[in-house]
Write a structure and sequence with these properties.
Residues 1-20 are annotated as: Disordered. Keywords: Cytoplasm, Iron, Metal-binding, Nucleus, Oxidoreductase. With 361 residues, the protein is an alpha+beta fold. The chain has helices spanning 20-25, 60-65, 68-84, 97-111, 115-118, 167-192, 197-204, 274-279, 334-343, 350-354; strands at 50-51, 57-59, 87-91, 130-134, 148-155, 210-218, 230-233, 239-244, 250-254, 257-260, 268-272, 289-291, 299-307, 313-314, 332-333. An eight-stranded mixed sheet has the order 2-3-11-8-13-6-5-4. The protein has a five-stranded mixed sheet with strand order 1-10-9-12-7, with no helix packed on it. Strands 14-15 form a two-stranded antiparallel sheet.
């Protein structure tokens, strides 16, 4: 199978001389460089409160191995979590701890390499199958975010950096497991929407789904009140499955408030993406989320993003369109959406709004 390709119209420069990790490894760093000062701690106008709230939890074992009644209850709960939050925790998922820890360790080894070694993967285009960088998109950003990243295409064609040596084998097993979990969650979500699994698999070409493995590292920041890990944004795709190294820093937007997320032990965090909002014709909305930094510990997260195939034109499911709920989005090829989202500023749901036809429900 040939590797997936997209037009290379969006250039991205090599990482600057200092990635955030290289910057913080320097013992002399005592303050945030000006280009990373994204916030003014003295300006409290318009600052939204950050609260604690109970996050919906989905028992994956009951979805896949429960009785018909138990599965029905989980599907209902899953649909409610998508509709009210766009975000949930998954417990009893069956992905072994040794694999989760191995993936975290291998990703850490990648980021711990010298800049010259990682620089081999400094992406020139948003569609490079292996791309290392810092912030988000330095060609369009006025400021930088306190984050380095690695992005790897793992399906329908599998890629891996050559170093560390363990990365290929571990990431192949890990992404196969998270993709399988994602597909089971999608079956439950289609069911909650009254959609047929086979119809959705065919419509979105999920056998050739686009799957990206992402690694994010947020080193300790000397002035966390000034810097931002990542600003408020939604994800592309259908689902994003998140694993953390035990250092929290994720916040999600819910009912007008920012909620600080503290996941249960041995759980995954899952949020629905823009393409779930498109397919559901606005019923299930992608959730805004952001990453905060701290002064004490390095936070690392690993994302597993599951999306339609690159060549699929994604549009609302016809079963969810009616006189009461007209078509909310124009169809767009997923690969084109991906390129737009990755090549522009990371700003809330700006790319989804670009193809929106009607106001939200």
């Amino acid at each position: 199978m040939a590797p997936p390709t997209l037009p290379h119209s969006s250039l991205i420069p090599s990482p600057p001389p200092n990635s955030v990790k290289e910057l913080t490894d320097a013992a002399s760093l005592r303050s945030v460089p000006p280009q990373y000062a994204t916030r003014n701690p003295d300006n409290t106008i318009g600052i939204e409160p950050i609260i604690q709230e109970e996050i919906p939890t989905v028992d994956f074992s009951l979805l896949t191995e429960g009785t018909p009644e138990q599965r029905s209850q989980v599907v209902h709960h899953l649909g409610k979590a998508c509709e009210e939050w766009g975000f949930f925790m998954v417990v009893n998922h069956g992905i072994p701890e040794r694999l989760r820890e191995a993936m975290l360790d291998s990703m850490k080894e990648f980021f711990d390499q010298m800049e010259e070694e990682k620089g081999e993967y400094a992406g020139k285009h948003v569609t490079d199958p292996i791309r290392y960088g810092t912030s988000f998109n330095l060609t369009v950003e006025d400021v930088r975010y306190w984050r380095d990243y690695l992005k790897v295409f793992v399906h329908p064609v599998f890629y891996s950096p050559a170093k560390p040596p363990s990365f290929r084998e571990i990431s192949k097993e890990y992404t196969a497991c998270t993709r399988a979990m994602g597909m089971e969650l999608l079956r439950g979500i289609w069911e909650s929407l009254g959609l047929e699994e086979n119809d959705m698999t065919k419509a979105l070409d999920l056998h050739s789904c686009f799957h990206l493995l992402g690694g994010n590292i947020y080193p300790p920041c000397p002035q966390p009140e000034l810097a931002t890990g990542l600003p408020a944004h939604s994800d592309y795709g259908l689902l994003t499955i998140l694993l953390q190294n035990g250092v929290n820093g994720l916040q999600v937007k819910h009912s007008g408030n920012w909620v600080r997320v503290e996941p249960l032990p041995n759980s995954f965090l899952v949020n629905i993406g823009d393409h779930m909002e498109i397919v559901s014709n606005g019923r299930y909305k992608s959730v805004l989320h952001r990453a905060e930094v701290n002064s004490q510990s390095t936070r690392m997260s690993i994302t597993s993003a599951v999306a339609p195939s690159l060549d699929t034109i994604v549009e609302p499911a016809s079963q969810l369109v009616s006189d009461e709920h007209p078509v909310m989005f124009r169809g767009m090829r997923f690969g084109e959406f991906l390129e737009l989202q990755q090549a522009n500023r990371l700003k809330e749901k700006s790319i989804l709004d670009f193809i929106r036809l009607h106001a939200e429900w």
